[in-house]
Amino acid sequence: xxxxxxIGLALLGGAVAEGLLLFFLLPxxxxxxxxxxxxxxxxxxxxxxxxxxxxYMLVGLIFALLNPNPPDNLLLLGLVTISFLxxxxxMLGQRDTLGFKGHFGALFKGRLTTGGLxxxxxxxxxxxxxxxxxxxxxNIVINTLIMAFSTNMMNLLDLRPGRAVKGFLIFxxxxxxxxxxxxxxxxxxxxxxxxxFYFPTxxxxxxxxxxxxxxxxxxxxxxxxxxxxxxxxRLGCLIFLIAIHIYxxxxxxxxxxENSVVLxxxxxxxxxxxxx
Length: 276
Description:
42% of the residues are buried. With 276 residues, the chain is mainly α. It is globular, with a radius of gyration of 18 Å. It has one domain (4-275). Strand 1 and strand 2 form a beta hairpin. The longest helix is centred in the first third of the chain and has 28 residues, at 4-31. The protein has helices at residues 4-31, 51-66, 74-92, 99-108, 114-133, 137-157, 163-178, 185-203, 210-228, 231-250, 253-258, 261-268, and strands spanning 35-37, 43-45. It has a two-stranded antiparallel ribbon with strand order 1-2.
């Protein structure tokens, strides 16, 4: 565990790094044509979430230079890799095939979609992290599934301005409460700082984090759950994630949110009149 001063500095560092990155990244994405129509048919930069692992890396580098015994970079390796896979899907994505059933159905027919690549790659990254987390084969299987499903869950949420960040923050609080006293907040502080700085940009529909960002948020949550929660809590988490995925294969998550007064209020909180 790290002291709260160190955690605060890491949080602030993540926000500062994110601000610097967005200042250069968003105009670059616009200039090279990395834009996409959002649900309001507005052309805005996509893959802004590339900034999340970069901000995390910058803060980690500074702390590593100041610390003769820097912490391991296992989570950073996973975040960078999963963001890259998300970026591929953002830029080259085939929108004719959707959902786990669609992507794996295409794969069984000998056709690899970008979504299929992301799913296979995400599963491999989750397995890689789970093996290094350790705890025996049963724990490795459970942790792999948690991280893989958590990564995709955030993709499912990233359909309206601010929704994925709100989901990330809500699940982060839930995991923190359940795993009280067992979390190394220092590891997550730079990413949280970056996400909080980026949040208004997403709420105002000035950019989309894309899968390059939502993948990062999902994997980070899954990693936190895998390394902090008890066995029973992780099992409950996995059951919840599987249920969400089964539900979204049949029903629209956006429609479900809009039909619920509470969920709709949370979803619309902070948005302007021009972005839903």
